[in-house]
Design a protein that fits this description.
Layout: H1 2-54, H2 70-73, H3 78-86, E1 91-93, E2 100-102, H4 118-132, H5 141-164, H6 170-186, H7 194-205, H8 216-235, H9 240-255, H10 257-260
Antiparallel strand pairs: 1-2
Subcellular location: Peroxisome membrane
Organism: Pachyramphus minor
Main location: membrane
Length: about 260
């Protein structure tokens, strides 16, 4: 229960961090904006370190709480329950084709209907439940250090921003080195479950964000990205509905810390 509470608070922080940053900047200006950024990142780091070191939660997932699978949580249709209790067959096997189809008596309502056989649905639900209930992979000393680097990277980046300023390359390089080092140390870990492998892939893909983070974006990426989006909007039919709003959105996106570095 305490571990679940920590995950809940961590999820709440990740949901409100952008709103808190923008609202504080609107009310108290830049000083208040950076204060709330530091407080939120500090709270997230403390919660994640507690989960890692005290509760042995292993590799931290994002989002911390798995979204609810409504298909899996959906109760059986009352008619299905009656059919099961009365012993009626839910499927019919064709005599010539040997195809398994659902019988008319066990057809659920339109909201809970699926297009597979009951056996396929039961197998998929049991497989999802097994994946969700898999315990985290135990981390050794090297992997614990790697995960700690990933957790404390935002705090170190904010500290470096305060020391060297936002226009310096040192915070950008420090953050990149910490991210790459964490992934390199975690790559030696074997026997990861499916969710942990997906999380490592997500972190690897997020390295592309360094192309959109200042000062690299301001000096190298901005002109090339805008040129590419403009060419797509002008010469590819239909793409302009997406690329033109994206071109207008990029400057605003660049100003939000949690969009870039959170």
């Amino acid at each position: 229960l305490p571990q679940q509470k920590l995950l809940t608070w961590l999820s709440v922080l990740e949901c409100v961090e952008v709103f808190a940053e923008m609202g504080t900047a609107r009310v108290w200006g830049e000083m208040g904006r950076w204060t709330i950024i530091v407080l939120i990142q500090l709270a997230k780091a403390i919660l994640r370190l507690l989960l890692l070191l005290w509760y042995k939660a292993g590799i931290q997932m994002s989002p911390p709480i798995v979204p609810l699978n409504r298909e899996q949580q959906q109760p059986l249709h009352p008619q299905d329950t009656e059919d099961n209790s009365s012993g009626k067959d839910q499927t019919y096997v064709g005599r010539r084709s040997s195809r398994v189809v659902r019988s008319l008596q066990s057809t659920p309502s339109l909201q809970s209907r699926h297009w597979g056989s009951p056996q396929q649905r039961e197998e998929s639900q049991s497989r999802r439940a097994e994946e969700m209930n898999q315990p985290p992979t135990p981390l050794g000393l090297q992997e614990t250090i790697a995960e700690s680097l990933y957790i404390t990277r935002p705090l170190l980046h904010l500290l470096s921003l305060g020391v060297w300023g936002q226009r310096s390359w040192k915070p950008w390089l420090l953050s990149a080195v910490l991210d790459i080092s964490s992934l390199s140390l975690l790559s030696d870990l074997k026997d990861l479950n499916r969710r942990e492998r997906a999380e490592l892939r997500r972190r690897t893909v997020l390295l592309l964000y360094y192309l959109l983070r200042s000062p690299f974006y301001d000096r190298y990426s901005e002109g090339r990205i805008l040129l590419l989006l403009r060419l797509l909007a002008d010469y590819v039919p239909g793409v302009g509905f997406v690329t033109r709003p994206l071109m207008d959105y990029l400057p605003a996106w660049q100003k939000i810390y949690f969009y870039n570095w959170g």
